[in-house]
Amino acid sequence: MSGGIVIAAPEPGLTERDIVERAVNLRPVLLERQPETERLTHYPKDTHDDFLRAGFYRMLQPRRYGGYEFGLPAFYRVVTEIARGCPSTGWALSLTAAHVLQVATVFEERAQDEIFGADGEFRAASTVAPIGVARPDGDGHVVLDGTWPYSSGAPYSTHYVGQTLRAPDRPGGPPGPPVLFVAPRSVWTVLDDWRGVLGLRGSGSNSIHMEQARIPAYLTREASLLDLPVEGGSLGSALHGNPMYAGRAPSFFHGELAAIMIGTAYAAADEYARVVADRPLILEPGRTRAELHDYQQHLGEALGVVHTAEAALQRTAEEWMETCHRNATGGPPFTTAEDDRLALMFLNAGRMTWDVLQGSLFRTAGSRHARDGERMQRYFRDAATYWTHVGPSMAEPLARRVGCDRLGQPSAHIPLIP
């Protein structure tokens, strides 16, 4: 670690076990706030304040800048527990607390000093698709214009981590390479357009709008979130002395989504256990569905799958950390092939939970629990919306790339997103 700005963490002695326990303890509160979260289209300020006190936004943040530098397994555990209380809230928390990892990985020290400021407050929405162009103004700044949709967690974000393209070198020419940028809250606005969606209605996935937004050029990098320059280490791993800041992003993002889906499936299992225990049999009103073998089996099989998915999530997170360590300490680099393999493992964990949530828990809970306002309906809607996300849409190209790598065939030409 070099000299320069150093910010003390709010609770220097906080442990990974402590922060997971805080997430578990918040679940009942989040469960009760689900309707309000959907009505607001983002989680309420009380929840935001709870997260600030708990330190959730600082889990992956470098200690140098007031964070805790917890590893991926602990981060995913917290996301799973929060999503078990409210999937929309888990989605928004994860997708604002996570992007600090990429910022701390690829931006130079001067940029990070400015981004984290005097107090280390950093929460960032992001989207992976490049929008608009970045135009240098000739005075050491870059001007941004555009509207970036699906910016989950935007209402409470302090920054925006965005993708754009470099402006053409000549009028009418093709745009330049991808540009990754960090824009402070002062240069963008949140549009009130996160409405009319099937699920994740409380995730605050609003659009971000910039009009002639001017940021220092050192808050930009010619890089893509889908292909960060980390092989052999990174600016961040050297600056912070932590290999975690030398990892690729796509597999990490798939792990986030898997953690949210696993939490959602646990929530559906919790609700299933509640509703079958409360449902009397039509011909034997003194007994409930919980006493019938079929419902016991449905729940047990579902829990078996979800537990397996969580085990896969945690082990793959450990592998991600191990790959970072090798990459930053002279071992095998963190290649695109490794990234694809880990991403597919995370994606499969998420897909397992979707299959059991919709095919077993939702299907057999009963149509009365498919009504508006019912938690089981909400979990189904949230999980179905996950399945339409750009992440799961990568399943086929990821599988093909992993297969090509095993067969010794070229895979770099297979795009992850159209």
Can you give a write-up of this model?
- The chain is of the alpha+beta class and 418 residues long.
- 49% of the residues lie in helices and 11% in strands.
- The chain has 12 helices and 8 strands.
- The chain has helices spanning 16-40, 45-54, 72-85, 87-97, 100-106, 109-116, 235-240, 249-278, 293-328, 336-365, 375-387, 395-407; strands spanning 124-126, 133-136, 141-151, 159-166, 178-184, 189-190, 206-216, 220-221.
- Strands 1, 2, 3, 4, 5, 6, 7 and 8 form an 8-stranded mixed beta sheet that branches.
- A hairpin with a 4-residue loop joins strand 2 and strand 3 (141-151).
- The longest helix has 36 residues, at 293-328.
- The chain is globular.
- The protein starts with 15 loop residues before the first helix and ends in an 11-residue tail after the last helix.
- The model has no long low-confidence stretch (mean pLDDT 96).
Total of helices: 12
The SSE order reads: HHHHHHEEEEEEEEHHHHHH
Sum up the overall morphology in one term.
globular
Major pleated sheet: 8 strands, mixed
Which percent range describes the beta-strand content?
Answer: 5-15%
* Structural class by secondary-structure content: alpha+beta
Radius of gyration: 22 Å
Please provide the count of β strands. 8
- Kindly report the average pLDDT value: 96
Poorly predicted parts: none
Distance between the termini: 40 Å
Provide the helix percentage. Answer: 40-55%
